[in-house]
């Protein structure tokens, strides 16, 4: 029995670090499906894995070091189980273990700038980046994700086993671990993206007028959910812009590396509409901005700023220097006219 448990732990750990071959993955999936207890155990171990990836480890994705921490925590948990009161039912132990795992996961994620909110339910896991911050984390398959301020990402408990589907609200930068057998999907209410393994930036805040996908490496397939049309294929240094008003999607060649500069603390506007810039400034500086004249909504601006070094007033001064707009600040309320 102990050998079987050890074997399952090795399968789970290998799956989380570098992936399993076809036979091993089938064995793990069959074991998970065999009983609710097995499924709960897998979910718990996956969350323990999250908590084992320290900041130093995550920055380089040092799987060997993380794997060692992971196994150590498994051992510690087993010792705790041995000394636990025998009157507890197994189901209660799993419930408490799951709660502890979520707390550990929160501890793992919270050191990133601005913090992160992690909510774990039976149905899915939701990760949020608060206003005025950005969040970096790794998914169970090793995919690196940055979430920009005011963004939320949701995925199911079966992520990496039965699917690699992400639901996004806001902006995320992804470096997807390649898995030809299990494609990676990012879906919003407007657009769905499919890849095998690549680097891209995806922005679709509900209040924005446009959806923008920028590809740094590899290839992505885009499915317009607003208007039925042929899938669009992006190549490196291309971006797709989906107009939410008319449902039209266009593809253009750009310097795509600019699209992910926000992960390094920059605010970069590449001929963006003023209303979308306003929303980004609101999320980044946690202020309220009103555009007083509808005629300004079609104006586009180009700019590059360092969020931590330049104040909201300095950004607005730069935009106003184009002589297209003026602004007025009253505490945390700003009017552009």
Main features:
single chain; 337 residues; alpha+beta; Jelly Rolls; Phage tail protein beta-alpha-beta fold; 14-stranded mixed sheet; 19 strands; elongated; FecR; transmembrane; FecR_C
What would you say this structure looks like, in words?
- With 337 residues, the protein is of the alpha+beta class.
- The chain has three domains: 1-111, no CATH class; 123-259, Jelly Rolls (Sandwich); 265-336, Phage tail protein beta-alpha-beta fold (3-Layer(bab) Sandwich).
- It has eight helices and 19 strands.
- The protein has helices spanning 2-17, 22-33, 36-52, 55-60, 63-83, 90-109, 274-285, 312-320, and strands at residues 117-120, 124-129, 135-138, 144-147, 151-156, 165-175, 184-187, 191-195, 199-204, 210-217, 220-224, 232-234, 238-243, 249-253, 266-273, 288-291, 300-306, 327-330, 333-336.
- The strands form three sheets. Strands 1, 2, 3, 4, 5, 6, 7, 8, 9, 10, 11, 12, 13 and 14 form a 14-stranded mixed sheet that branches.
- A hairpin with a 5-residue loop joins β3 (135-138) and β4.
- α1 packs across α2, α1 (2-17) packs across α3 (36-52) and α3 packs parallel to α6.
- 34% of the residues are buried.
- The model is unreliable at 51-63 and 77-122 (pLDDT under 50).
- Residues 129-221 form the FecR protein domain.
């Amino acid at each position: 029995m102990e050998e079987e448990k050890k074997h399952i732990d090795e399968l789970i750990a290998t799956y989380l670090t570098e992936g399993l071959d076809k036979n091993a993955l089938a064995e793990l999936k069959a074991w998970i499906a065999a009983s609710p207890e097995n499924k709960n155990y897998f979910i718990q171990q996956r969350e323990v894995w999250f908590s084992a990836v320290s900041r130093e480890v995550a920055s380089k994705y040092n799987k060997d070091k993380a794997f060692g921490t992971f196994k150590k925590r498994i051992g510690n948990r087993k010792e705790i189980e041995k000394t636990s009161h025998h009157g507890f039912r197994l189901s209660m132990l799993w419930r408490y273990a799951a709660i502890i795992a979520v707390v550990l996961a929160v501890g793992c994620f919270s050191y990133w700038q601005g913090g992160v909110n992690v909510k774990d339910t039976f149905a899915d896991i939701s990760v949020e980046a608060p206003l005025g911050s950005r969040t970096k984390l790794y998914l169970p398959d090793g995919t690196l994700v940055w979430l920009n301020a005011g963004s939320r990402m949701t995925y199911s408990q079966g992520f990496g086993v039965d699917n690699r589907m992400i639901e996004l609200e806001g902006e995320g930068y992804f470096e997807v671990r390649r898995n030809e057998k299990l494609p990676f999907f990012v879906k919003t209410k407007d657009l769905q993206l499919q890849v095998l393994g690549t680097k891209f930036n995806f922005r679709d805040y509900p209040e924005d007028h446009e959806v923008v996908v920028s590809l740094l490496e590899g290839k992505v397939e885009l499915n317009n959910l607003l208007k039925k049309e042929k899938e669009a294929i992006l190549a490196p240094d291309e971006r797709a812009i989906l107009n939410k008003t008319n449902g039209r999607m266009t593809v253009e060649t750009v310097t795509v590396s600019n699209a992910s500069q926000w992960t390094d603390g920059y605010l970069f506007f590449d001929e963006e509409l003023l209303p979308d810039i306003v929303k980004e400034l609101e999320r980044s500086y946690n202020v309220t901005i009103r555009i007083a004249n509808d005629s300004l909504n079609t104006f586009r601006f180009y700019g590059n700023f360092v969020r931590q070094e330049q104040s909201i007033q300095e950004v607005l001064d730069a935009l106003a220097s184009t002589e297209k707009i003026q602004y007025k600040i009253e505490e945390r309320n700003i009017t552009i006219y």
